[in-house]
Amino acid sequence: HCSPCDIKELLCSSSNIPRSVTFQLQPSPSLVSLTILSQSHISRKVVSFYLFAPTEKEDMFQNVLSQVAEQFSRAFRINELKTEVTNRLAMLEKRVELEGLKVVEIEKCKNDLKKLRDEMTSRGGGSHASDFLGYSIKLNPRRDVPSYPKYTLSQETIEALKKPTFDVWHWEHNEMLSCLEYMYHDLGLVKEFNMNPITLKRWLLGIQENYRSNPFHNFRHCFCVSQMMYGMINLCNLPEKMTLTDMGILMTAAVCHDLDHPGYNNTYQINARTELAVRYNDISPLENHHCAVAFQILSLPECNIFANVELEAYKQIRQAIITLILATDMARHGEILDSFKHKVDSFDFTNEEHVTCLKMVLIKCCDISNEVRPTEVAEPWVDCLLEEYFMQSDREKTEGLPVAPFMDRDKVTKPTAQIGFIKFVLIPMFETVLKLFPQIEEIMVQPLRDSRDHYEELKQIDDAMTEKKTENMSLGGKKK
Q1: Do 284 and 331 form a contact (C-beta atoms < 8 A)?
Q2: So which residues are the catalytic ones?
Q3: Nearest to 297 by CA among 255, 341, 354
Q4: What would be the CATH architecture of the domain defined by 163-465?
Q5: Which residues bind Zn(2+) 1 (predicted)?
């Protein structure tokens, strides 16, 4: 069962014979003569091996030889495997090196494209058919849970989170993430959807990293809307009237409602014929994009907070979240509010259509609820919004596109921007919700009326100053 090389190796090892000698086997009926020749063939040594008769001893000897041969074969195979593994490792290292070079080249290419895009922007050129906005969805968070600090919320913060008076300006991103995480646990959503708490953290990180650093439509706005939703859920006792699944839909839609917002509204997207407008056929391009990014993030196993929900239930949750995010398009404001007005006087919480309509109105309320908050919290948001509006109108002027008067820095002021919006959009919508939830009057509707009065006073002051300035100019002209 052994090869000649195996036998030679065995004999050399056991008899201290040099491996340079030559062996010759000379079998005979009763013994095997082994002649050992040196390299010069001068010396000769004969060793005889007696052959056993076919007995149990011979069988034993054969078994020993077989085992020795098998051990030798294994040893040789291990060496071969080591060689093969080493070769494969070298190949893989080479491939990794090449892939690394590719990544560097790709990053360089991206940087070059960004520089070119910025240069085109500064020159006011470029084609409207291309998407200058450069959508870059960071599906995998740059950091993972271990580097996400754990904050313990004080009892004071926990109570404040439930109220519309919560000051959203005093919190950094990690603290806002911890507050959102607390809301999901407090409402029982983690237990209801059997969420992995680590997956919830990773999902929130992915959400935060896919909000851009716009003046207004940023992660703080996302937190603002989500906190207001959490406040309305508590203030209106919604868990007593609706299901936990409804709570999960409301909160998740609020968190995701402006994902990857580019800072330029639907009117700009459509007029400039951007990639988003073309992709979504001018139908709520931004809101459709927010939905798409939300479910791209949820498609990652490490970020899928609904991974343990049954397929049919997940389909319904997905459709409901899409419905709510699409409802935040202000172009649909009149249609949605009219539908709710027709239902509110005979509202039925067991009617699925009624509940869906209410959820659409609730997310709309939260999305534009800044003026519900105290003046010192609300007013900075007006500055942020106007800054974003002015960025868009400046670009529209450069590109020869229509400019909305309420976005034109030469025509709009804070009072004129807010009075009409509060009087004709916010107050009518919140007063309709008030019919269903009387408890919101003091803490939500009355602040809106106060805010309207505040801006009307500011407008009167502005008008008086403008009139006085005009009179002074007229008098100056007469003196000349």
Answers
A1: yes
A2: 217
A3: 255
A4: Orthogonal Bundle (1.10)
A5: 221, 257-258, 367
Residue 412's pLDDT is what?
93
Closest CA to 33 of 17, 44, 49, 9: 49
* 258 annotated to a ligand binding site: yes
pTM of the model: 0.71
Is the CB of residue 446 less than 8 Å from the CB of residue 434?
no
**pLDDT given for residue 89 in this prediction:** 77
The answer, yes or no, to whether residue 281 has pLDDT greater than 50, is yes
| pLDDT tens profile 243-264 | 999 999 999 999 999 999 999 9
What residue spans define the domains of the chain? Answer: 163-465
Q: Is 367 annotated as a binding residue?
A: yes
The better pLDDT of the pair 439, 45 is held by 439
Amino acid occupying residue 369: S
Q: Would the annotation count 342 as a binding residue?
A: no
Is 67 marked within a binding site? no
Residues listed for the chain = 480
- Rounded to the nearest integer, the mean pLDDT of the chain is 85
pLDDT of residue 132: 40
